[in-house]
Amino acid sequence: MDVDGDGDAVDAEGAMVQEPDPASAVGAGEGASPAPREPGGPDGGGAAAVDGGGAGGLRRAPGKARRVSAEDGEAPADRHGRGRARGEGDDAGERAGGGSAGGPRIPGDPRDTGGETKEAAKAETGRLRRRLAVLQEKLYADGRYALLIVLQGMDASGKDGVVRHVFRGVNPQGVRVHSFKQPTPRESAQDFLWRVHQAVPPKGMIGIFNRSHYEDVLVVRVHGLVPEGVWRSRYARINDFEHLLAESGVRILKFCLHISKEEQRRRFDRRLLDARRHWKFSPDDLRERQHWAEYQRAYAEMLEACATPHAPWTIVPADHKWYRNLVVGRAVVAALEEMRLHYPQLRSGPGAAGEG
Ligand code: AMP
Ligand code: MG
Fold this sequence. Notes:
The chain is globular. The strands form two sheets. A seven-stranded mixed sheet has the order 3-4-9-8-5-7-6, sandwiched between helices. A two-stranded antiparallel ribbon has the order 1-2. Helices cover 35% and strands 12% of the residues. The relative contact order is 0.23. The chain has one domain (28-63, 105-338): P-loop containing nucleotide triphosphate hydrolases (Rossmann fold, 3-Layer(aba) Sandwich), CATH 3.40.50. By secondary structure, it is α/β, with parallel strands linked by helices. It has helices at residues 92-95, 118-142, 159-167, 185-188, 194-199, 219-222, 228-247, 261-273, 283-289, 292-305, 321-338, and strands spanning 2-3, 9-10, 49-50, 58-60, 146-153, 175-179, 206-210, 250-258, 313-317. The structure holds adenosine monophosphate (AMP) and magnesium ion. Magnesium ion is lined by residues 155, 282, 285. Magnesium ion (MG) binds at residues 155, 282, 285.
């Protein structure tokens, strides 16, 4: 038994150890409308809770999450663009004792585990994964809806881990992952949603955005890549865009993977110390870490501005990978259950089975 990069048990072949258990549906209910609802019941079970944020659709998991403390230091702002490395290592702000300039923070405690144990959480995630495989097939067969999952979070927050651990087991034909990088010259020559719209999953499909159009109000803001008036107006453009998608049958779930600055440090260290993880590390990651507090602010504001009933945000405590996977798994399965998907009836007509 070993532990892979995400702290999940793997056997000698590298295959995940799965727990035999019947599939479990979480948070089922409500009609096929794309309207969002709370994943997990009010009893929580560690599932997400509606935060009651002004715009509606801002969820935290779990409900009792508290404000992130200001213990994370704030590094001096560097608005000179992405290419400039700082002379020394990172964490100047951290070492300075973390006298953070207040300001908005992503709500919730990244270390939260919703009262779950790791063992139980992993068992449930295994069941959710199997349920997800069934639901994905129904989504395709039904053909009325698409599911779009948006993953955002700081470097090393676990976006790739969610893709690997929650969606493993889904038929590869039914899911498309799209990773949004720095825009190419071709993409930069278009409006910021151009490349995004093309990547939206068609009906019957699950689409996963590993980063997304939200980078256009996050990294772009933190590095001053466009004037404030431009990125600020994007909140409304994004909400309109997502509204259009929702009206067109795309169910949208957005996850903000919320890790602490300390946990990011640990994950970077692991990447640096383990030759098998070097590939995961980029010097850019340290540069971005210098802007931690600015990112937190940008995230917090964006979460408020772009949490809508038709495209809610769930803030996922992500210091513990097993809890992160559980929260996302539950929300995704709940959203698919709510669609009340059906296998279509046997089509009658020439050549149909049962004829002649
Ligand atoms: P990674 O997710 O580690 O592969 O890195 C992708 C990089 O692309 C991140 O540093 C993102 O901030 C950056 N990126 C993604 N979208 C944009 C965008 N619209 N403008 C600028 N940078 C972006
Ligand atoms: Mg990166």
